[in-house]
Amino acid sequence: MMMKRIFEVDPWKVTTHKFSKEDKRLQESITAIGNDYMGMRGNFEEGYSGDTLQGTYLAGVWFPDKTVVGWWKNGYPKYFGKTPNAPSFIGIGITVNGEKLDLAKVKFSDFELSLDMHQGLLSRSFVYEGKDVKVKFEFERFLHIIQKEAALIKVKATVLEGHAKIDFDSTLDGTVVNEDSNYDERFWVPLGEDKDRRTIQVKTKPNPYEVPQFTVLLKQALRHNGEALQGEVSSQEAKLSEKISVELDQDQSYELEKDVIVVTSRDVEEKDQADVAENLMSKLQAKSFAENLAEHTATWEKRWETSDVEIAGDAAAQQGIRFNILQLFMTYYGEDERLNVGPKGFTGEKYGGATYWDTEAFIVPMYLAITKPSVTKALLEYRHNQLPGAYHNAKEQGLPGALFPMVTFNGIECHNEWEITFEEIHRNADIPHAIAMYTEYTGDDSYVKNEGMDVLVGTARFWAARVHWSKWRNKYVMHGVTGPNEYENNVNNNWFTSTMARWLLKYTLERLPLATKEAQERVHVTEEEKEKWQDIVDKIYLPEDKDLGIFLQQDDFLDKEIRPVSEIEDQRPINQHWSWDKILRSPFIKQADVLQGIYFFPENYTKEQKEKNFDFYEPLTVHESSLSPSIHSVLAAELGKKDKAVELYERTARLDLDNYNNDTVDGLHITSMSGSWLAIVQGFAGMRYDHDQLKFKPFIPDNWNHYSFKINYRGRLIEVYVDHQETKISLLKGENLEILVNDQKVMLKEGETECLKA
Ligand code: BGC
Questions:
Q1: Is 263 within a domain?
Q2: CATH for 205
Q3: How many CB atoms sit inside 10 A of residue 604's CB?
Q4: Domain range for residue 148?
Q5: What radius of gyration do the chain's Cα atoms show?
Q6: What would the pLDDT profile of 282-302 be if each residue is shown by its tens digit?
Q7: DSSP per-residue codes, 660-700
Q8: With a 6 A CB cut-off, is 356 part of the ligand 1 pocket?
Q9: Ligand 1, residues 347, 349, 350, 356: which to mutate, most atoms within 8 A of Cβ?
Q10: Is 360 a known active-site residue?
């Protein structure tokens, strides 16, 4: 399997001492930082003239880019929602004795670039080697996780040899463009610059789709040794520049701090933005860079206290899980219920900050256990708020009920490929499935009884109309779908999609009588509807092959020329080597499909069924969706296939750090990062929950010495520690709880640790 590791292995840092122009974009993706309000790729403050993707993104700020398709089909979404590449505020252009500092061109040595995962701090240093002069530059940058509108940057120049006149040019730049803009348009219109207040303001272009325009104001202020500094300011359309010059002799150094405030019309009206930014800047500057950093770090420490996963004995595995937790939290920490988790977070454009089924299928199971229940509830409410969009989507397809979108910012579908927009509808049960996960895990059924019922009934009505009766089979069938395996389109009776639809109808029927009176009145399900739904539950066709003992991914799957992935090792990833036609006809599977269904409902299948399906499908799976390895790792662990579980854990945990899918240049795979946590907690530790029962079945990879993690469960904080001799489970906080470990009852008591022999 291909991999490319450009950062050193270290438990708390992601560091490199090498700079290679070819890997610049990859390096930028991996050193992205964010604070769940905004984020950016690891671009260089002083600019870079080589190949780079300058990228800054603001949570919840988006633009509807008019659809591009070859041939228009009725029902296509009119636009594709994109997170516009936001005005860039990190710029600090530098010249030394007249030469522009640009690592694509100048001579330099001692390069170091490092992301400190404990602190969420990005730092970089190098020695510039000019004519008769050597200057060491050290940069630090972080996005404040308490004062979210604030970005802080510090650059220190130390002359090692010679004399240097250094010109700094601190900039705000609203002229940025998206690389993925459909019509090469600029998404931002300038509103004005204010030289006195050091601000620029821009607004997203008007659009014909009734999507609100977003206004953003950026403000900068410079400091030296904590004291305010006034440079020479100039501006041009959507740009502001402030220049400071210093002369330094050998061994002298100079530190420049750049403070930035970013406000958006999501929180502050356009006309008030300058005043609000002024106040926020005063608040920020009431503290020094070091004080702000200490505050920021203390908050990160608190987050790590309850969410860190410790792995002893395998530094690469350790680094992988921490990197993933850090990047996830930098993207989303549940502090703003209007937001969601984009597949690339703030780290790139492709997939950007839009919401996918990834959230419910991959983020919810992890966030339920490591954040407060209110965080998951906010994710559920996000979808509830978007129900009108889901009704719109179903109507566009000529169907009743609600169809949640594959890609969205506001509930309205904006994916532009028919095989996904119209056919990859499994999302319409995966998304409501999070309601069941929330209810089971937290024990709080108030949501499913009320708002949740709107979601369940809306989607149930869609499913009941999307299947049809086959007289020939005497069953309900579902034609023309794409399962999670996007390497097959327009298939009939995809087992996963039909299983999910069946689950949704069954769950809705079970929960409906328990709903509040208001909810029942709101959804108003008739007796005929209930009968029809029950009939579908009883008679939906779920293809299987009894001889092989497997569920069939779709009707024709066994007609394919079945051969294992091991025969095509040299042609992977196939999506970069093969024509689409060749991929579609091949037996190779992009990501868990049948196995995704078995993963969702572990209680519904016997060990033998799980084993047969795993042994059949896993060898055919190329894992070319980053969402794939973790699901397989969890199942492999349950089936006692330890080596496979560990191999797939490594792949999921270090997917970006080792660039396994050869696409991390585009940005990080944020939504699949939870997979490494799932692989450890659900896989290695075997955590499951059902019917108020929490269970573990731990094992430890041979080359690890121990691992430990903490989970929240119904008001309790539980720590699990596993080594080769024993498993220790401690109830750190909360009421006593009886759990099952390896099927044995264990009573947890507050402040006590239960030790169980391996
Ligand atoms: C996967 C989808 C996923 C999307 C965004 C695709 O490659 O096949 O399942 O929702 O990426 O992560």
A1: yes
A2: 2.70.98.40
A3: 11
A4: 31-274
A5: 27
A6: 999 999 999 999 999 999 999
A7: TTS-GGG---GGGTHHHHHIIIIIIS--EEETTEEEE----
A8: yes
A9: 356
A10: no
